Structures are given as structure tokens and as C-alpha cells.
Amino acid sequence: MSLTTADWLALFTHFMSLSLLAIGGAITTAPDMHRYLVDERHWLSDGQFTSSIALAQAAPGPNVLFIALLGWNVGMNAGGGMGGGVTAWAFALLGVILAMVGIMLPSTTLTFAAARWGHQNRELRAVRAFKQGMAPIVIALLISTGWILASSHGSQLQHGPLWLLTGVTALLVWRTRLHLLWLLAAGGLLGWMGWV
Amino acid sequence: MTNPDSPTPGVPPHPADQVHAQPASLRDLFWSFTWLALQGFGGVLAVVQRELVEKKRWLTPAEFVEDWAVAQILPGPNVVNLSLMIGDRYFGLRGALVALAGMLAFPMLIVLVLAAVFAGISDSPGIQGALRGMGAVAAGLIAATGFKLIASLKINIMGAAVCWSLAAITFIAIALLRVPLAWVLLSVGGLACAWAYRQLGQVHVLGTKK
User: Fold this and answer.
1) Is any Cβ of chain A less than 8 angstroms from the Cβ of B157?
2) Domain chopping of chain B, boundaries
3) Which of A67, A144, A195 should we substitute to test contact with B (largest number of B Cβ atoms within 10 Å)?
4) ipTM score
């Protein structure tokens, strides 16, 4: 499978168009990306798509990096896979750049302009009302995110130890100043041993 | 968070002005964000709160919540938006770009290297188990970040009862009923902003009567 210049441009513009829809994080556009890249264009396999998301979530750094991995895999496939040598690596790199610039450029430009406006006008009643009004909602969204991530393990009954680990972590982080990396290492170790 | 330092004299008591420290240079900004991002397994936000609010004190808890509200409601990756905003505040456009680069450069390198070498071993039960365990910890980290920030609501203009109600409705809608985020932001968020707008007006009227 090889990609024409038009295909690369289509990839870039598709990511650009999704950028401004990504309210709540780039991950919210994952269903549409799957539809486009896997079902419609066949640029990626289902397995490549799923493992890109899993790997980006497990690796350090913002989860938006799954987009870089999608671009990487599209380019790698276009260049003939890992056996494709330098060509494949070059295409993979092109894929990373197009995908990341596409998904980031519109949203970061908007954020930059909007945040700057908001900061310069921070004494405006409307701006203050927005920040004060959104505060409890934003805090509840954080707790909800924790809940949703924990729920992705499965039900509390079937996966008691995992829920317990999440609960104990939350308590330790909330109440102590234990370094977060120790907690992550402990979680990884417990999982490795098969205890959770 | 309690704060032993007294605020700088002459600075008005607006939350946005209670910053106690700031990045020393663009280099400091870059490496601070790189270090944040590299600690963020399963999400960076918990680390941002711990490092920038509790340790470095570039932001007060209240300011963090305010910035996070903006970062969350705008499209794009939330932590990336947040790093952009913080970088811009201290060093303008250059700062925004440097913070962004710090957040993305090394983590991207790592994730691509992992993708190249990980392909063969990702199916082993040990790795799967470790990822599962770290995922459970990451869920706890993010929830704890929310719990810690509850304290910052004490100075909220809407008052405790309204804040708790809004938070409870949001949690039920998002976590339990799985209502799409955009709807919740528009409905509950819209109501909250309107109520805060009204309350701010009343404070203003009281203030002028004095």
C-alpha cells in the first residue's frame, strides 16, 4: 500500500478538521479517527489502532501522543512495514509530523488566543463569572475521570483488588506527599506479579 | 493548600495575582514541563498539580482550577492547552512554544521508541498486568487531584451549597450516566456561569454601597 500526495494531504486536513472538535481532549475524537483511518481508508489495522491508544496511555506524557503513533503506523504501512528500511522510517516520520501538526495547530492557536484574551480581561465580570462558575464543574470532572478510568477495569465485584488499588492511591495522593512515581511503580509491580 | 508565605504587599487580593514563584528562564520552563510529562504515566494532570502548585508554586490552587477550566473547555489536549497558557503568561509566545515543546518532545521520542521495540512483547501477561496495575494507580491519581482542589472552592463566589450541588450533578451526569461532555458543559456549565455572574453583580452592588 502506498500513499499519494493527495492521500497525505487528506490525512493532514482530516486531523486539522478534528482538532477543533476535540473538546475534553484528543481522545474524544478517537471514534471518528477509527472510522476514517481503519474503516474508510484502510490505512491502519484494527489492532494497530487499539494498541496505539493503549501504548500512549501507558507511556509517560500526554495521551494525545496516540495521534503521533497513528501517524507513525500509517507511514510505516505506506513504506512497507518494519522491513521497508529507510523509506518506511521516513514515511513513518512524515506521518508523525502531519498527524501531530494537524491535530495540534488549530486547537493550540485557538487556545493561545482565547487564553490570552481571557487573561488580559480577567477583571471583566463575564470572565470572572466563567472561572468561578466552572470551578466546581471542573473539579467534579476530574473525579469523574478517575471513576471512568477505574470503571474501565470492569465491575467492582469482579475486579475488587484493582478498585482497591485505585482507592488506596487516591487516598495516599490526597493525604500524603508520597512521590507519584513510587505509586505508579507499585501499581506496575502488583500488576506484574498478577496480584491485581 | 495552606500557604505560610504572606502575599506580596501592595498586590491586590485577586486569585490570579497570588503567584509565589515563577520559572527562572525559558530553559527552566522547558525542563520543568519535560520532567512533568515524563512522570505522567496514564495522564499528566496529577503531576502538573503536584509539581506546579504544591512544589514550585507557580500557580495557586484556585488559579490552577481557573486555568484548568479554560484548558478543558477549549478544544485540544487539556494538559497541552494548560502548558501553553502557563508558558505564555511568563514569556509570551516564546514561552508558550517552549512549554509545548517540553510537554511533547521527549515523551514523543519515548513513545515512538516503545512502539518500535514494544511490538513483540506487548502481549506477555507480565506486561499486560503491569499496564493494568499502573492504569488503576493513574485513575486514583486523577481522582485525588480533584479531591485536593475541593479546598479551593472555599473562596468561590457561589457559596458552598451551590458548588457542592453543581459538582454532584456533574459527577452523576458524566461518571454514572455517561452524558456527553459538551452537553454537560453547555447546560450545567451555562447555569453555573449565569449564577456566578449574578452573584458577582450583587457583590459589586454591596461593595459600592459601603
Assistant:
1) yes
2) 14-116+130-153, 156-210
3) A144
4) 0.83
